[in-house]
Amino acid sequence: QVQVEETGGGLVQAGGSLRLSCAASGSIFSINAMGWHRQAPGKQRELVASIAKGGSTNYADSVKDRFTISRGDAENTVFLQMNSLKPEDTAVYYCYTMVPSRRIYWGQGTQVTVSS
Questions:
Q1: Three-class SS string for 6-65?
Q2: What would the pLDDT profile of 81-115 be if each residue is shown by its tens digit?
Q3: How far apart are CA 70 and CA 28, in angstroms?
Q4: How far is CA 59 from CA 13, 49, 56, 64, in A?
Q5: Section 69-82 average pLDDT
Q6: Residue closest to 19 by CA, chosen among 90, 70, 91, 74
Q7: Which long-range contacts (CB under 8 A, 24 or more apart) does 102-109 make?
Q8: On the CB side of 58, how many CA atoms lie within 13 Å of its CA?
């Protein structure tokens, strides 16, 4: 069993910042990648950012230069620093972990609300 847990969501005014944290635990021997997706009401889930085992990162165009994904000291933790937040960033943010078998485990999600 693998568990993925996100923390750090909340309510913030436009222009503000939030930092999301994610930790994977359980029967994990290696991690290929971790990252974040988000889903706003009435919209499809979309990739926000990801970081591979080698450290390469990938961002959605809408968050480039505002969001930064990073890993913690432990391979199984990842952070998403979100700056200059906009109302359109409002969504449920989901953390995922991909293991070598390419199976993906998802967290339950954390709500981020940006008020104008």
A1: EECCEEEECCCCEEEEEEEEECCCCCCEEEEEEECCCCCCEEEEEEECCCCEEECCCCCC
A2: 999 999 999 999 999 999 999 999 999 999 999 99
A3: 19
A4: 23, 4, 10, 6
A5: 94
A6: 70
A7: 102/32, 105/2, 105/3, 105/4, 105/24, 106/4, 107/4, 107/5, 107/6, 107/22, 108/5, 108/6, 109/6, 109/39
A8: 12
